[in-house]
Each structure stands twice: as C-alpha cells, then as structure tokens.
Amino acid sequence: MNDEWVVAYYAKDPIEAELLKGLLESQSIEAQVSSNGMIGGVGELPADAIETSIKVMAEDYNQARQVLESYEKDDSREIFCPDCGETNFTNFELCWSCGKALASA
C-alpha cells in the first residue's frame, strides 16, 4: 500500500480547507490540511498567501478530485445552522460544529 500524501486541492483559506476536509471525510476519504498561520492577514495579504492545501492519500486522489470538482460546480453549497449559525455544506444533515439537525433544503 502506498503511504504517499498528495495535494488534491488548494482552498482559498484555512476555513474553506477545514470544511472541505470534513466533506472528504464524510465520503470516507482521509484528508490532511496543511497548517497556515496567515489567516490573520486576510485583507492585508495577497489571496494566494492564505491558500491552504488539502492532501489525500495517493490512492484516494481520483475519488477526492471528483468530490472536490462537484463542490466547485455547486453554487448553492452552503447553509447556515439555525442553532449555532455555523456554515455547513448543503449535503450535511447535521451541523459539523454543534451536531444539531440542519433544515432541509
């Protein structure tokens, strides 16, 4: 088995990266987010300075790209938790932050 991690996506910032990591994990794809301490520079730094890479195992790369490409195509991919206000993907049934049920789309 290949234990190589490969970059599957560059998220616009660490927040999007963590949300996408959760999306991949909901599809049984193990993912890692590289640390990016630049989030405090939002608005002060060029956009590419806070880009955050998402890595997956090499054998999961193609499946991860399919999930991520679907994410990119979906214009209505975010909903807000009515309980805590956290942003969630529309395919989530429970809020990733507080665990409460999300309203049906």
From TrEMBL:
What positions does the domain DUF2007 occupy?
8-72
- Any single Pfam family the record assigns to this protein: DUF7577
Q: How far does the signal peptide extend, from start to end residue?
A: none
InterPro entries, alphabetized: DUF2007, DUF7577, N-reg_PII-like_a/b
Name all DUF7577 domain ranges: 79-102
Official protein name in the record = Uncharacterized protein
Q: Which organism is it from?
A: Idiomarina seosinensis
